[in-house]
């Protein structure tokens, strides 16, 4: 767990906390804003221009101006450059504490669950993970689960989500550890998504960007679902596919209409999900 320490030097306190495995880097104003709005435990906020930070908060997030005034410490921009790979244009960065895994798992396993869980099987791109977490937050999903070797809380993933990891439960699990609920896996051989209704406790599963879903996930799935697309188009990207799946859940899909001329019933190819 990150500790604030007793030093009066904010740079020294940052360095003491930054290497802790529980530390989450929030790069820029929007990541910090979202972490605070969704209850993130933000411990250190450094800015090269505190008056400018508070003015930005007043303009874009006046609900947080008081919190930022209390948390933010001003340091020279040269000091920020020694702490960060690159100083964000908003001139602010923060360190927060990664949410407790047990609490996240309890949220994911809640029954009945009010909204789906998104499953990314073995994703290979941290930016894609972040983009999906951001989408899941926007649609009000319960959370995002990943399998495989990548940590979904890697700084590059948190950057891609603009700090919205704190809006839902984000965890890395194995397939046997999945939360309860029917699994709807996106796959080219599946039923037309327009003919399927996703329940609130669904797990919406998307395979890797190259291989699609694994045989293990295919066997575990309650149903395979495909998104129709234009002939001769090979794929949708991962974040787009997740967005379509979550929008379909939110709109409580209806029976499939006749396909327009030029459309095929084929889903995206193996690189789509």
What does this structure look like?
- By secondary structure, the chain is an alpha/beta fold.
- It has ten helices and twelve strands.
- It has a six-stranded parallel β-sheet with strand order 7-6-5-9-8-10, sandwiched between helices. Strands 1-4-2-3 form a four-stranded mixed β-sheet, sandwiched between helices. Strands 11-12 form a two-stranded antiparallel sheet.
- Helix 8 links the parallel strand 6 and strand 7.
- The longest helix has 14 residues.
- It is elongated and about 60 Å long.
- 42% of the residues are buried.
In a few lines, what is going on in this structure?
The chain has about 270 residues and is α/β, with parallel strands linked by helices. The protein contains ten helices and twelve strands.
Distance between the terminal alpha carbons, to the nearest Å?
A: 35 Å
The multimeric state of the shown protein is: single chain
Show unreliable segments.
1-6, 253-273
Level of helix content? 25-40%
Radius of gyration: 21 Å
Instruction: Describe the main β-sheet briefly.
Output: 6 strands, parallel
Instruction: Output the number of helix runs.
Output: 10
Structural class: alpha/beta
Strand content: 15-25%
Strand adjacency order, main sheet: 7-6-5-9-8-10
Task: Count every beta strand, where a strand is a DSSP E run of 2 or more residues.
Answer: 12
Furnish the topology, listing elements before pairings.
Layout: H1 10-18, E1 23-27, H2 29-37, E2 41-47, H3 50-60, H4 65-71, E3 72-74, H5 77-83, E4 92-97, H6 101-108, E5 117-120, H7 126-139, E6 143-146, H8 155-160, E7 169-172, E8 183-192, E9 203-206, H9 215-220, E10 223-226, E11 229-230, H10 238-250, E12 263-264
């Amino acid at each position: 767990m990150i500790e604030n320490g007793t030093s009066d030097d904010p740079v020294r306190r940052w360095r003491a906390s930054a290497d802790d495995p529980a530390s989450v880097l929030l790069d820029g104003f929007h990541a910090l804003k979202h972490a605070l709005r969704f209850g993130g435990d933000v411990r250190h906020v450094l800015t090269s221009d505190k008056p400018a930070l508070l003015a930005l908060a007043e303009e874009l997030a006046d609900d947080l101006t008081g919190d930022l005034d209390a948390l933010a410490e001003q340091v020279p921009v040269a000091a920020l450059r020694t702490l960060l790979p690159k100083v964000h244009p908003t001139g602010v960065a923060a360190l927060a504490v990664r949410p407790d895994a047990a609490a996240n798992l309890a949220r994911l396993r809640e029954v009945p669950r009010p909204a789906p869980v998104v499953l990314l099987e073995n994703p290979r791109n941290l930016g894609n993970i972040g983009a999906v977490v951001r989408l899941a937050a926007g649609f009000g999903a319960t959370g995002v689960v990943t399998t495989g070797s990548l940590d979904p809380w890697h700084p590059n993933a948190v950057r891609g989500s603009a700090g919205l990891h704190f809006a839902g439960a984000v965890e890395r699990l194995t397939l046997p550890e999945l939360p309860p609920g029917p699994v709807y896996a996106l796959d080219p051989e599946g039923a037309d998504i327009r003919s399927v209704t996703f329940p609130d406790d669904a797990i919406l599963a998307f395979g890797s960007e190259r291989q699609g879903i694994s045989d293990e996930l295919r066997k575990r799935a309650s149903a395979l679902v495909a998104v129709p697309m234009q002939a001769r188009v090979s794929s949708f990207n991962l974040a787009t596919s997740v967005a379509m799946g979550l929008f379909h859940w939110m709109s409580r899909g209806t029976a499939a209409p006749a396909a327009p001329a030029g459309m095929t019933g084929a889903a995206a190819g193996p690189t789509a999900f």
